[in-house]
């Protein structure tokens, strides 16, 4: 294995490799990291995994809306620093936290099978049995996401929207213990991974609220030059998820969108077709540009020989058909260009300015 991976000697003389996994300290991050560790242990019974937990800027600044902090790598910077300093060998992230351009020297070596990518409505206990449609007028919905707020304001004009920050535990506590919010909107995937599926009162379909780029998928980030580790984690890639997320990330990158602008997507693989719907919104949801395009992603089993030519929006997937990866990336760029030609730039620039002025 590469020189920077520690090796430990077992009592029986067997040499075992130690892989250090970096994670955020939040309960959800730990659960996600443990699930990836479990998969790796199944595949490579001889490896030893050490989990190194750390706090990130996003975990420390809890009183400001994410879109206001304006830092693209809020939840990833400290973890990447540890990767760079060789204190950890792999880092597990929610893919939606990873910017579309990674710092030099890093790559996403695995995108795991996606959990439900949709958003979920979690009601205050007193509103049990209701939906966003049936909540009383002027009910306050908590969400810190500009993307969710923009779509839901347009779809449910009778409701009000207010910021809510904190990790999942904190947000649920704020909802249940105070009377500030009638409901909050959270990613279904996180609730499911935490074992809180019973709190989901409504899953929002694409007609109500399209999801964030990469939502529901876990990503394993590694040092790009660690070929052994890259190869080791690559078996975790889920081809359909990889293709969907590459098209979504390429769409966002081409639009130059980030946390501070409302951009939403919806993807589907049907047979050999990949469908991508993408949209940009003004902050109040009144202006919206939305379109759907599709491409053929034949899994031709022709995989890239050289790792160099196989990085697509930060993702290295040498074991996935290279023509399918290229088609997925092109689809995202083409859809973004179609929206830019219709005036998406103006909507995004205005949204960014308004958000900065808040």
Automatic annotation (TrEMBL):
EC number(s) recorded for this UniProt protein: 2.5.1.61
Claim: Signal is one of the keywords in the record: no
Domain Porphobilinogen deaminase C-terminal intervals: 243-302
Keyword presence, Transferase: yes
One cellular component term from this protein's GO annotations in UniProt: cytosol
Family in the record: Belongs to the HMBS family.
Record's function text: As part of the heme biosynthetic pathway, catalyzes the sequential polymerization of four molecules of porphobilinogen to form hydroxymethylbilane, also known as preuroporphyrinogen. Catalysis begins with the assembly of the dipyrromethane cofactor by the apoenzyme from two molecules of porphobilinogen or from preuroporphyrinogen. The covalently linked cofactor acts as a primer, around which the tetrapyrrole product is assembled. In the last step of catalysis, the product, preuroporphyrinogen, is released, leaving the cofactor bound to the holodeaminase intact.
UniProt-recorded name of the protein: Porphobilinogen deaminase
Lineage start: Eukaryota, Metazoa, Chordata, Craniata, Vertebrata
């Amino acid at each position: 294995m590469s020189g920077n991976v520690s090796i430990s000697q077992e009592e029986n003389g067997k040499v075992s490799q130690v892989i250090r996994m970096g994670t955020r300290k939040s309960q959800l991050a730990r659960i996600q990291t443990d699930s990836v560790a479990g998969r790796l242990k199944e595949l490579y019974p001889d490896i030893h995994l050490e989990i190194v937990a750390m706090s990130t800027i996003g975990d420390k600044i809890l009183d400001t809306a994410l879109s206001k902090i304006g830092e693209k790598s809020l939840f990833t910077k400290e973890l990447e620093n540890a990767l760079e300093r060789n204190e950890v060998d792999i880092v597990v992230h929610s893919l939606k936290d990873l910017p579309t351009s990674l710092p030099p020297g890093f790559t996403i070596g695995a995108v795991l099978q996606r959990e439900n990518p949709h958003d979920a409505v979690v009601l205050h206990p007193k509103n049990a049995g209701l939906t966003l449609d049936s909540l009383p007028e002027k009910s306050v919905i908590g969400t810190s996401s500009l993307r969710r707020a923009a779509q839901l304001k347009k779809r449910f004009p009778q409701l009000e929207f207010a910021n809510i920050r904190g990790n999942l535990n904190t947000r649920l506590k704020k909802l249940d213990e105070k009377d500030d919010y009638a409901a909050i909107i959270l990613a279904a995937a996180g609730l499911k991974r935490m074992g809180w599926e019973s709190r989901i009162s409504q899953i929002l379909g694409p007609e109500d609220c399209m999801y964030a780029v990469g939502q529901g998928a876990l990503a394993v980030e590694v040092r790009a030059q660690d070929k052994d580790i890259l190869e080791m984690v690559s078996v975790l890639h889920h081809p359909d998820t990889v293709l969907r997320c590459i098209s979504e990330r390429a769409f966002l990158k081409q639009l130059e969108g980030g946390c501070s602008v409302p951009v939403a997507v919806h993807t589907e693989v049907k047979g050999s077709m990949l469908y991508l719907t993408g949209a940009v919104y003004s902050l109040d949801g009144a202006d919206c540009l939305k379109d759907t395009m599709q491409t053929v992603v034949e899994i031709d089993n022709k995989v890239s020989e050289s790792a160099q030519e196989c990085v697509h929006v930060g993702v290295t997937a040498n074991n996935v058909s290279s023509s399918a990866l290229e088609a997925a990336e092109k689809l995202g760029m083409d859809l973004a260009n179609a929206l830019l030609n219709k005036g998406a730039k103006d909507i995004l620039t205005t949204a960014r300015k308004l958000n900065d002025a808040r």
